[in-house]
Design a protein that fits this description.
Layout (H helix, E strand, L loop, with lengths): L6 E5 L2 E5 L18 H11 L5 H11 L8 H8 L4 H10 L9 H11 L2 H19 L10 H22 L6 H8 L1
Antiparallel strand pairs: 1-2
Helix pairs in contact: 1-2, 4-7, 5-7, 6-7, 6-8
Amino acid sequence: MAPALPFGVTVDEQPLVIPYRIYQAEPPAGAEASLPPTQLAILNCLYTRHHDGRVRQRRLEHILGLNEPWVVPFVVRLVGEYVLEILLDLRRELVELDDPTTPQHAVYGRVLAANPSFLAVTRQRVASYWACYHRHLYSDRRYYPGFTVIESMRAAARHYSALRRSRGEVQDAGAVRLLAE
């Protein structure tokens, strides 16, 4: 089956189109052992788009520690999904996102500042899934892992945008508005 509903982002000023879901079976055991690290990371990123949430979660474990700009959209997209276990993993592993002195904060801030619409849509998805599936567990949405993660990501994007403005770099006025909302 072909990938459904791809979404696009910009990474280092290059367009990146990512499948919404993939339906291919994972490679057989051992088939990935010979892949170079970058190819294995790409494969893990792609399988974070798998139709099975357990596969997405398992593959996410392998990319969460990577501070590569092209990994960021795959991780961010998972924040806007309904699988609570994935959201808990994200909150636990993205702790450096809140520290402006870390590489994680810098890479997420840079990529997300360049993709304010993607970030805004992801935030809307977080709100929808909280209201539909998780409101009974988290009556105050501020404590819902999806909200805590997406707000940390928004803060990193705002911080990076402010740095760009202070350096006199050009920034899209629409992007500034979306990040501020």
